[in-house]
TrEMBL record:
SUPFAM superfamilies: Sigma2 domain of RNA polymerase sigma factors, Sigma3 and sigma4 domains of RNA polymerase sigma factors. Residues 59-128, 138-211, 225-274 form the RNA polymerase sigma-70 region domain. Gene3D superfamilies: 1.20.120.1810, Winged helix-like DNA-binding domain superfamily/Winged helix DNA-binding domain. This is SigB/SigF/SigG family RNA polymerase sigma factor. GO terms for molecular function: DNA binding; sigma factor activity. It comes from Actinomadura montaniterrae. InterPro entries: RNA_pol_sigma-70_dom, RNA_pol_sigma-B/F/G, RNA_pol_sigma70, RNA_pol_sigma70_r2, RNA_pol_sigma70_r3, RNA_pol_sigma70_r4, RNA_pol_sigma_r2, RNA_pol_sigma_r3/r4-like. CDD domains: Sigma70_r4.
């Protein structure tokens, strides 16, 4: 049954358009030679290396429509079509190199799943924003399909527990996959945020640690401690650090000695320091 469905999909992909200008059917060379005939010649013992490369290039050109079709099939996932086409061509070349004409299979049916698998491996191994386990990578598409089916059947999104029961996996695996899902395509700091393509780069709107923040905290703490000081000690501190007075000027204003001002100031500062940061 799977082979029949695959053949039907292959036929659908390779059927010519109604226009006479449609590309030749995959598996048939414009000169009339089939892919199987070219591969048979390519695998003959006496074929030169140059001729083998010519045959390989002809096979690649012959199956270019299949490569482009597969690349466009996955273009909506955010990767450039050109990159996906290169990956698909790699899968096609691998299929050409590994195909055994003596088995009697049609090359197109053999190559199609190999090309498709190469593109899928590219998404699995190369396009995640962070490295996650193979198990999580493989569970993600299953989780997507199960979520869509549940939403269609029940009109709401499933809970992680319901997804775990549907897929036959643990709740922890579902939770890890849901968390990793958000990391598949993280936002670029150079791109615009909030869905506004004309907006400023996201990096310019991210908050950063403010070095002056600790000074604000210390200032508010100190304000409360100063309010609780005796009036003379508070006056000395305010005149010295906010009035920019010398100890001699403060002593003259308060009618005490400069030595007394020095002792009171030292004692008061020690008290404030211990109240703010501990002894």
């Amino acid at each position: 049954m799977r082979r029949l469905r695959l053949r039907q999909e292959v036929i659908g992909l390779s059927s010519p358009a109604t226009s006479a200008a449609a590309p030749p059917r995959a598996g048939a060379d414009p000169a009339g030679q089939s892919a199987e005939a070219l591969l048979s010649e390519m695998n003959l013992p006496g074929v030169s290396g140059a001729r083998r490369e010519e045959l390989r290039a002809a096979l690649v050109r012959m199956h270019a429509p299949m490569v482009r079709r597969i690349a466009h099939r996955y273009a909506h996932r955010g990767e450039p079509v050109e990159d996906l086409a290169q990956v698909a061509y790699l899968g096609l070349v691998n299929a050409i190199n590994r195909f055994d004409p003596e088995r009697g299979d049609q090359f197109f049916v053999y190559a199609y799943p190999m090309v498709l698998g190469e593109v899928r491996r590219y998404f699995r191994d190369r396009t995640w924003g962070i490295r996650v386990s193979r198990r999580i990578q493989e569970l993600r598409p299953r989780l997507q399909r199960a979520t869509q089916r549940f939403l269609q059947a029940h009109g709401r999104s499933p809970t992680p527990g319901e997804l775990a029961a549907i897929l036959g996996v643990s709740l922890e695996e579902v939770t890890d996959t849901l968390l990793a899902w958000e990391s598949y395509r993280p936002l670029s700091l150079d791109g615009a945020g909030d869905g506004d393509p004309e907006g400023s780069p996201l990096a310019e709107r991210l908050g950063a640690e403010d070095a002056a923040l600790q000074h604000v905290v210390d200032g508010e703490t100190l304000h409360g401690l100063l309010a609780r000081l005796p009036e003379r000690e508070r006056t000395i501190v305010l005149l010295r650090f906010f009035g920019n007075r010398t100890q001699s000027q403060i002593a003259q204003e308060l009618g005490i000695s400069q030595m007394h001002v020095s002792r009171l100031l030292s004692k008061t500062l020690t008290h404030l320091r211990e109240q703010m940061y501990g002894p």
